[in-house]
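Exam prep: given the inputs below (a chain plus adenosine-5'-diphosphate), describe the expected output before reading on.
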Amino acid sequence: MFKSLYFKVVLILLIFIVAVMCAVGAILLNGVTSYYEEDFVRQMNNSFTEDSLLMSELKSVSSSDNYPYEMKRILNSYAVDLGIDQYRNYYILDSDGELITGSDAELGSELGITPNMLNIISQKSSNDVKRTSEYADWAIRIPIGEDGEDYTIIYVRDSLEEMRSMNGMLFSIVLQAMLLGIIIAVILSFFLAKSISSPIQTLTQGTQKVAEGEFSGEINVHSSDEIGVLAENFNNMKERLKNTIDEVEGEKEKLDTVLSYMSDALVAFTESGELLHLNGSAAKIFADAIKEGDLTPEKCAEMLDLPQDINNAAEQNEKDNQNGLIFRDRICNGRVYDVSYARIRDSEDSDTYAGSVFIIHDVTGRYELDESRREFVANVSHELRTPLTSIKGATETVRMDPDMEADVRDYFLDMVLSESDRMTRIVSDLLVLSRLDNKRTKWNIETFDFKQSVRRLCDVMRPEFGEKNHEVSFGAEVDIPLITADKQRIEQVIVNIISNAIKYTPEGGHIDLKVSSTKSNTVVLQITDNGIGIPEDDLSHLFERFYRVEKSRSQDAGGTGLGLAIAKEIIEAHGGNISISSKLNVGTSVRIELPVECHLNVETNEKEDKK
Ligand code: ADP
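Solution:
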């Protein structure tokens, strides 16, 4: 309350009133005192000058024996000029200052010797007004006798009572005026303070709202004084601030949207390690750290396998005029990332930092591709080196022994031939895959009876089934629709799958072929054997190039590890699907699904045709 504007205005007015009244009172009291004193002096000077009538009359009676009483009579007649009344009296003293007579003999007996008296007695001349706090007096010598050596003293004393009572009266008037002034001041100051403080209060409430972030509504101060101008300026300022904040928020929202939809993960921290921004992709990568409530720059660096002194490295990197640190192929939660790390400066020219940012680019696809390419090259080299080594060995053996027996030579030559065939198979399979990869395969699309094709292949391959005494069964639903596809390539896939079944099913095993169709216009071929089966761990890799469950068992069977990869490429190029389910030592089932209308890329074929 004592700090409120209202209280301050009241206090100022009160102080002002009291100060004015004090000053007025002091001036009045001083004025009255001065006037009284001056009036006393003027009266004395006028009355007691050497050539004044009073003096000449007093001197004229000074030689008489009865001079005191003569003088008293004269002074009485001049009582009005001398201002003699109940407060001011005259006294006639002898040369020692002893009272002879006076206007008030009773008071005269209490006179005593005053400084003025002493002065006039000792100096034998002059007269003066002496004013003390209690009285004002005047003394003058009047020579007496014929020779004029002796003298009497006329002594006038004013008790100042009149002046004091007047001052007292004035003081009480000033006091009353002051009290009245204070009451009026309090009432006036109430209205004054209200008229000053209410617009300020309105302004204060408005500014408080803005400080709390609420920009709606105007501050309604309609006065035309400085407060009115201040309110208007504040309204303008608030409007501009609101527009600026809206713009900044809009920009921020846009940035947030861009960041959240960006496929790269982004996480930013303040210099003290508090999270500043985290987009969706980053939230997935650091889900565990977020769950534990431990998402800090250090934790991110640790998870992404970045160096501990990353900040120093980033600063050094920046000094070398590079934009940010890039760490390639960091593995985190089974995925591979390229990580950019940069320190955020407070401002462009500033030496201090506001925080740091990690931008994490998922390169798992590229990494796996690179890996598979490397693996592929290694596989091709390995696959070709094996037959080449055999061919070289066989050729050298034959060459070193010209007298070699014919059947031994034939053995080595057969080996050269079979290894050459194997190399040819690998190379032609690779060529097929390469064409499929580059979408340069020439497709010959025709409409044919899928069930009929499978039945025919089954018949064609009967001799091969017979080699290992396999029991073959063929079954088909009645209404299998015709399909439109590259018949030759589809049959190539079927032959490959049947060959695998023959290869990996021991003597006397059973191979079953079943053709069916689904409601979604798809024909299905299921080739099931009760052969050696495939371990569960290998199932997901079967369609990879050069993947073989056990190199030895496949190589023994003359496999290249490319058959299923080619089958998958061909079936998928038709918009179909191929899958394998198997149990080790129980058997394997391959399921081929083909759409009735295939979705081959004919455009490429046309280009190819033109070539
Ligand atoms: P390959 O030419 O070596 O047979 P594939 O790509 O056709 O290559 O087959 C890949 C691997 O899958 C083979 O090495 C073999 O181990 C396994 N495999 C394929 N079909 C069968 C099957 N019916 N029974 C058991 N294993 C099979």
